[in-house]
Amino acid sequence: MAAFNANREAQFGLLPITKEERVYNFRDASSISVGLSIATWAFLIGASLALFVDFWTAVWGTLAGNVLTVLVMTWMPSLSGAKYGVDGYTGATSFMGTKGKNIILVCVAIFIVCWDIVLSVLFARSVANVAAALLGKEAMGHTFEIVMAILCMVITFFVVWKGPIVIKKFNNIVAPLMCIVVIMLGIILTVKIGWGNIAEAQPLMPYESEWVNFLIAVELSFGAGLSWWPEMGGIARLCKTSRAAYWSNMIGLVLAATVATGVGAAACLTIGSEDPTVWMLKLAGVGLGIMALIFIAVANVTSCGTITYTMCLGLKGLKALQGKSWGLVVGVFCGIASVALLFGADWIYDHFYIMLGVTCLFYVPMTAIASVDYLLLRKQHLSVRDMFDKTSTSKYYFWGGFNWVAIIIFVAAMLFYLTIFDPAMLVPHKMFAYATGSIGAGIPTAIVYYIVMKAFVVKSGKGGYISEK
Amino acid sequence: MASYEEVYEQLQGKTGTDPDVEKELCRRIAEIESTDGVVENLKKSDWALSWICIAVGTFLPIVIYAIKLGITNI
Q1: Which residue in A117, A269, A312, A382 is a FRET match for A277, CA 20 to 30 A apart?
Q2: Is B37 within 8 Å of A83 when comparing Cβ atoms?
Q3: Residue A292 — very low, low, confident or very high, per pLDDT cuts 50/70/90?
Q4: Interface predicted TM-score (ipTM) of this complex, two decimals
């Protein structure tokens, strides 16, 4: 039997990370954040916004959406992750219950599989377009793309299997390269198409109301910002300070993401293609286009690796997987993503904007509940031992392992969100023009959760809250 | 201040992990709980800056666009 290795268990399992094991300073965390945000999904988000708004509205909408959601969303997972060395799923025990956190885990796993598919398809299309350009062919065929997408998942498996140090090294190389690519594409766009044409280009499928179009851009950006939730705790627990865990997100998930999204929107508005692997060759020509696509292929593997690592950390906390090896957990997850890729790759990729909308539906209530619970009800104090106690003696056992108040409010908030905005069809309802889906559902959720928890749960002594009576 | 023995006594057999991992888990929990966390919370200045970012980065653009475009429904 292999000797017990505590450091390995901490980096590849559920053990909380202590101070001396922290490997990410502000620069490292920022690099990871930039590497994550500036991957090709930023271009896809830009293309989604180009359906509704022009270039400058897309930029301001992205900034407005990202600043609010990235900061608010990170309050619970990043700050508690950095403070206590636990990932976001373990932290979720405090507001969902010892068993209730598994609901979050399963839902997030579905989202991560979808994101892995999108990134793998982008990797595949990048490689396919490079190969076609080099071989002088028009296209490489669907089978080639599927094989390349699965290859992306195989490489992801090896990266994640090796753990956070490899991910950090990848990101420290990829993040600067991607910054160069984005700047280069911005310059080429400016030179070839011109700022005047970019600024005047009209959105592709807007609603009649310009105000509603702007709010849809903001709402989709809320979705983009919130979709980073699964990664936050896993990265923060490796950060040396709270500030590194928190403010690094502003560099990557807000500023870098806004620039890259703007480039994606500008390209889609002026070239007319939503697919960055297509417009890059058209825009930059064969030489520079191939170089950009190669960088993007590598960046997609890095992003895939980062999101899969944090997801698998969460899965390791499941009772059924606790005794299993890290390699097996990563292998099973990458295997499931590969199978899903075979059946739904094109559909998910082509309906990317729906993912952003559905992301809001799920993450808005969770972010509201988690933030109120951690900051207002628990005043930033968690009991680490109770997060790891799986039995009824845990303070976070609530009722049968579930915080039913949080779950009921969670479901009610999702239903309420649907009365404001239909994320599947991107159809806004009447109230959307006054509040947006996320703000309209998020603020009432936070208020109702605070009042109900204060009135009933905190007073009853359940959940380990500090009662003021 | 939490001691390893106290944490281990409370958690033994309740974490669903192997005995070796459980002992290490308890050692770490005792270390983290002894200082109520590994790193300090954000300072008030960080929170103030956060709210300024939200006001300037999110609400200001929304207000400007509301004035510029007018609040109209579909």
Answers
A1: A312
A2: yes
A3: confident
A4: 0.94
- Maximum alpha-carbon separation in chain B: 65
- Residues of B contacting chain A (CB within 8 angstroms): 2, 7, 10-11, 14-18, 20-21, 24-26, 28-29, 31-33, 36-42, 46, 50, 53-54, 57-59, 61-62, 65-66, 69-74
What are the C-alpha distances in Å from A324 to residues A8, A9, A120, A234, A316? 14, 12, 26, 19, 8
Other residues' Cβ atoms within 10 Å of the Cβ of residue A422: 16
Which candidate from B40, B69, B74 shows the least CB-CB separation from A428?
B74
Parse chain A into domains and list their residue ranges.
Answer: 22-350
**Chain B contacts of A212, Cβ < 8 Å?**
72-74
User: Strand, helix or coil at A110?
Assistant: helix
Chain B contact set for A438 (CB, 8 A)? none
Tokens of A120: 């793998």
- Tell me the Ramachandran region of residue A403: left when phi exceeds 0, alpha when psi lies from -120 to 50, beta otherwise: beta
Beta bridge partners of A95: none
Amino acid, res. A3: A
Superfamily of domain A22-350: Hydantoin permease (1.10.4160.10)
Query: In terms of pLDDT, which residue wins out, A162 or B45?
Result: B45
Tell me the nearest-neighbour CA distance from B1 into chain A, angstroms. Answer: 13
Report how far residue B36's alpha carbon sits from residue A77's, in angstroms, rounded to the nearest whole number: 17
Query: Between chains, do A85 and B32 touch, taking CB under 8 Å as contact?
Result: yes
Per-residue pLDDT of A330-368, as tens digits, reads 999 999 999 999 988 888 888 877 887 888 999 999 999
Tokens of A373: 């619970």
Cβ distance B74 to A211 less than 8 Å, yes or no, reads: no
Per residue in A210-227, pLDDT (tens digit) is 999 999 999 999 999 999
d(CA A91, CA A222) in angstroms, rounded, equals: 22
Q: What does residue A379 show for φ and ψ, rounded to 5 degrees?
A: 50, 40
Distance, in Å, from the CA atom of A297 to the CA atom of A122, rounded to the nearest integer, reads 7
String of DSSP letters for A400-460: TTB-HHHHHHHHHHHHHHHHHEETTTTEE-TTHHHHTHHHHHHHHHHHHHHHHIIIIIIHH
Whole-number average pLDDT of chain A: 90
Instruction: Output the pLDDT for position A393.
Output: 96
Full 3-state SS string of chain B: CCCHHHHHHHHCCCCCCCHHHHHHHHHHHHHHHHCCCCCCCCCHHHHHHHHHHHHHHHHHHHHHHHHHHCCCCC
